């Protein structure tokens, strides 16, 4: 039996569980269930009004990016992951993850409803701002391959497409780009601003840390079960995806903070992006590429690597799941 498969009658029995890491992550995800309106976001309105134009621009820019791309993650899951996974415990987790992504969309809608932000302008930015549109096109390229064309998951190339999509949405979008945005969002609270908004982001980060663990476990399981994928050429391709994603994020962050705010500018954020990229490369078994240290040490608890694994070795992919923050 393999974690990959497309048979409708596969994965209809939960027990015996074959991939305990997926079952554990499902249990943790259920325990993490939350609802946006439990956070009293209106209490942050006074902070928003006294923020600078650059700070309000940054917050709006983040919402412009997060809102559509949480929905894009669900397309990546629905078209590119769920149909090609056979294990029931993985299906359970993916179903909960898709609900969480929808919940995140509603959380960011709540931000747009609460603060005096021009919704139409915010919505349009992911198309109108070239650096933001370029990031989206990077993702869409991989999702489109899974959604609009037939992928034969029994072939080497089909399995590679599955891994490419996983790396694009999970390692890049959720594991680097989203975390870069989370750091900026939470930096306001470091200056005693938008504390309730920070609490909302804390909940989102808690979900995303599990999404990242699941996705990396899934990538590594597929590689472990399909040794024909473990070639130097494919590894180089996956590594280059991460490096290309860093360049896209660096351009985006220059538009996010064109002039800088107190204690932060685009160079600071991009150093954090390179630090994140090194952690994700290490989680996939590569060597770090950039060598940047973490400039936002206060974010370390959300990003420390719990377990390093190797892209080319048969390994135990059971990531630790407990009360500590994830990768």
Automatic annotation (TrEMBL):
Keywords: Deoxyribonucleotide synthesis, Iron, Membrane, Metal-binding, Oxidoreductase, Transmembrane, Transmembrane helix. InterPro entries: Ferritin-like_SF (IPR009078), RNR-like (IPR012348), RNR_small (IPR033909), RNR_small_fam (IPR000358). Binds 2 iron ions per subunit. One of its GO terms (molecular function) is ribonucleoside-diphosphate reductase activity, thioredoxin disulfide as acceptor. It catalyses: a 2'-deoxyribonucleoside 5'-diphosphate + [thioredoxin]-disulfide + H2O = a ribonucleoside 5'-diphosphate + [thioredoxin]-dithiol. Its cofactor is Fe cation. The keyword Transit peptide does not apply. Its EC number is 1.17.4.1. The chain crosses the membrane at residues 166-188. It is an enzyme of class 1 (oxidoreductase). PANTHER family: RIBONUCLEOSIDE-DIPHOSPHATE REDUCTASE SMALL CHAIN (PTHR23409), RIBONUCLEOSIDE-DIPHOSPHATE REDUCTASE SUBUNIT M2 (PTHR23409:SF18). Provides the precursors necessary for DNA synthesis. Catalyzes the biosynthesis of deoxyribonucleotides from the corresponding ribonucleotides. Tetramer of two alpha and two beta subunits. Belongs to the ribonucleoside diphosphate reductase small chain family. This is Ribonucleoside-diphosphate reductase subunit beta. It comes from Aquipuribacter hungaricus. The lineage of its organism: Bacteria, Bacillati, Actinomycetota, Actinomycetes, Micrococcales.
